[in-house]
């Protein structure tokens, strides 16, 4: 029996339990079971917070993880995990201040901005969705300017950028103070985002001191929409990175 306040008590048995344990059990990519397994004609499936495991009649187990699905808000993209396909284009992109975000991330961002404004904190949107081609141009410019080693610490290679999911947004102070610089954390917008972003389903994806795990320098302006379940859970448990929360290996390099 496995219990959590959100999912209640659920049994996980047999081959499905073995496969779930191999994924890190409740501390892994799949999370807690949300229902007992159901079987039809000897083929059994059990759903988890972030995926499902199927045990076929033949005994073969198949694991589906939402973190592998580019269209899911739980997708994990880093230097070890390119988008699949690498040229992925999200559906339902909508305009936000001249940038594009996926509609679920866009409405969450609007709520975040409205709540910040109600607290007297103004925030602007600098960058949202970037296509594979746009990221390629950006990355190649950084390589030409700084060399590949430095470029890899500040810009993702095409197919490896969270901005290509439509779920990542770079925010700024409207007056431009510390835009895309670590000192953004000391601005009103940066402080408000760090304290409140989780309530709207966003995390500071590249926190301070976590570059060995994330592969990126501290980016207090880069918010990633993961949905409120994950964002609130990461915040309340005091976990620094999405990789650690999901039991994934560090992705410091390609
Ligand atoms: Zn960014």
Automatic annotation (TrEMBL):
GO terms for biological process: proteolysis. It comes from the Bacteria. GO terms for molecular function: carboxypeptidase activity. Residues 99-227 form the D-alanyl-D-alanine carboxypeptidase-like core domain. Keywords: Carboxypeptidase, Hydrolase, Protease. InterPro entries: DD-CPase-like (IPR052179), LGFP (IPR013207), VanY-like_core_dom (IPR003709), VanY/YodJ_core_dom (IPR058193), Zn_M74/Hedgehog-like (IPR009045). The keyword Cell membrane does not apply. The keyword Hydrolase applies. SUPFAM superfamilies: Hedgehog/DD-peptidase. This is D-alanyl-D-alanine carboxypeptidase family protein. It comes from Arthrobacter jiangjiafuii.
């Amino acid at each position: 029996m496995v219990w959590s306040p959100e999912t209640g008590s659920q049994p996980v048995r047999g081959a499905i339990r073995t496969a779930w344990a191999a994924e890190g059990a409740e501390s892994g990519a799949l999370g807690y079971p949300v229902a007992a397994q159901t079987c039809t004609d000897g083929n059994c499936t059990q759903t988890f917070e972030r995926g499902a495991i199927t045990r076929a009649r033949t005994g073969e187990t198949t694991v589906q993880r939402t973190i592998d699905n580019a269209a899911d808000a739980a997708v994990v993209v880093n230097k070890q995990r390119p988008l699949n396909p690498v040229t992925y284009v999200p559906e339902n992109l909508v305009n936000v201040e001249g940038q594009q975000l996926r509609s679920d991330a866009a409405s969450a961002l609007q709520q975040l901005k409205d709540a910040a404004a109600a607290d007297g904190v103004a925030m602007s949107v600098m960058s949202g969705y970037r296509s594979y081609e746009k990221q390629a141009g950006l990355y190649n410019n950084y390589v030409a300017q700084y060399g590949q080693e430095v470029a890899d610490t500040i810009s993702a290679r095409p197919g490896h950028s969270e901005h290509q999911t439509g779920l990542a947004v770079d925010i700024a102070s409207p007056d431009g103070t510390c835009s895309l610089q670590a000192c953004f954390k000391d601005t009103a917008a940066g402080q408000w985002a760090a304290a409140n972003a989780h309530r709207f389903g966003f995390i500071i994806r590249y926190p301070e001191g976590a570059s060995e795990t994330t592969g990126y320098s501290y980016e207090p302006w880069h918010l990633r929409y993961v949905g409120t379940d994950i964002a609130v859970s990461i915040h309340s448990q005091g976990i620094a990175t999405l990789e650690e929360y999901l039991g994934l290996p560090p992705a410091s390099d390609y």
